[in-house]
Amino acid sequence: MSGCWNLLNYAETRLSQLEDCHCEKTCQVNGLIYRDKDSWVEDDHCRNCTCKGGAVECRRMSCPPLECPPDALPVHVDSQCCKVCRAKCIYGGKVLAEGQRVLTKSCRECRNGVLVKVTEACPPLNCSEKDHVLPENQCCSVCRGHNFCAEGHRCGENSECKNWNTKATCECKNGYLSVQGDPAYCEDIDECAAKMHYCHANTVCVNLPGSYRCDCVAGYVRVDDFSCTEHDECGSGQHNCDENAICTNTIRGHSCTCKPGYVGNGTICRAFCEEGCRYGGTCVAPNKCLCPSGFTGSHCEKGKSFTEKHLLWKKLREMYQWFHCYIDECALKIHTCWNDSACVNLPGGFDCLCPSGPSCTGDCPHEGGFKRNGQVWTLREDRCSVCSCKDGRIFCRRTACDCGSPSADLFCCPECDTRVTSQCLDQTGHKLYHSGDNWTYSCQHCRCLEGEVDCWPLQCPALNCEYTAISEGECCPHCVSDPCLADNITYDIRKTCPDGYGITRLSGAVWTMVGSPCTTCKCKV
């Protein structure tokens, strides 16, 4: 029995030891195992990394400002991230930094402030002599279109290497600024602090690496990337847009725009038929007519009943003229009068008169009542719209703006607002717009309204084709039949293209044609 108790005590002791055990998570990088909280320097000597709970966290080293003496220049050296000062060389008025070369009768390289003769042989070139290019500060020529960036031109993580005809340079990425004029080292621009953003009312600017965003103030809903409004009138149904209109939240409320195929001011939208509806037909949907009895066709332009009646009427009229007999088209019901019009027989023919009824008087049904033919009125729900009744149909339009009149309604006519506080600068800060002006910027519709700029994306039509492309200077794609001209191809890097000089290019790669620096090539497979 005592033996059992001893085993139980031993087991409990082991369990308590296991509970106190801490399992350490390690990090594996390039085949090496690092323990938790271990630190090391990356192979490029520019990033300090630490193992934290099994995850690797790296931060780029911050290079201090470098001020070299007059006889030295800042240069990159092996095994160091930041530039260091090295003695410069001068030859024929040309200043050379450490490692740069000059071709005289022989090749010489700047080392420790002295030009030293270099005897290295230049490699053979796979291009014609007319395509030979001598790079800056080098002695050996290369072929036109040479990739200097691939030679290890060092640019910081916030800058990118760009090839030129005879050299490579570093350029700061969008949203970054060079440190002390050296584009190899770039730091983030705080657009919020520098007031270089387009966040409008009811938003808070939040700086991001290389960019920024506009967050809505608590309790407000987003209008677009730069604006927020207090009330979501479109989503809550608190708007007066027609059922065939698109509601868009704005800073001051909402706006209504008729859908494609409909016309009107947004609060009232009517279907539009491009060729109209003949013989009294009504346009009930885009390019769709509701035809009166006896008429058919997309525009009520034809129909068996219509054709038969007119042929019969024509035949009987010819018989009347030939035999001088009397035909009553109204009694025989071979006339073409419709709606509330009455048929009146005439010698040799008939006429249609409108004694009563809204279809004959030209009156228009409106909100449970009638508007007289020729009557003009303003909508209660939209003071900027003027409607009129003409021959049984209602036509609405925006109020005409007379900016010369002192009684011009600035709410309906913002373009008449000449106050300086109501003007807007465009996104470049160089052009001034008046309230109510519209313009396009970066594929967005923009409008100035009482001193504030509101922009929304351009709506591009849907395309039913396999390949599309966007032409230079345009915002919306168009269909193309040649896949080599398409922009919407998904590239497969497993596929390649051989260029004119036998170099294998990956799918999606872009390069400059050898011998034609103004021609850009792209592998599309």
TrEMBL record:
Residues 188-229, 230-270, 271-301, 326-361 form the EGF-like domain. Pfam families: EGF_3 (PF12947), EGF_CA (PF07645), VWC (PF00093). This is Protein kinase C-binding protein NELL1. PANTHER family: NEL HOMOLOG, PROTEIN KINASE C-BINDING PROTEIN NELL1. It comes from Zosterops lateralis melanops. InterPro entries: EGF (IPR000742), EGF-like_Ca-bd_dom (IPR001881), EGF-type_Asp/Asn_hydroxyl_site (IPR000152), EGF_Ca-bd_CS (IPR018097), NELL2-like_EGF (IPR024731), NOTCH1_EGF-like (IPR049883), PKC-binding_NELL (IPR051586), VWF_dom (IPR001007). Gene3D superfamilies: 6.20.200.20, Complement Module, domain 1, Laminin. Plays a role in the control of cell growth and differentiation. Promotes osteoblast cell differentiation and terminal mineralization. GO terms for cellular component: cytoplasm; extracellular space; nuclear envelope.
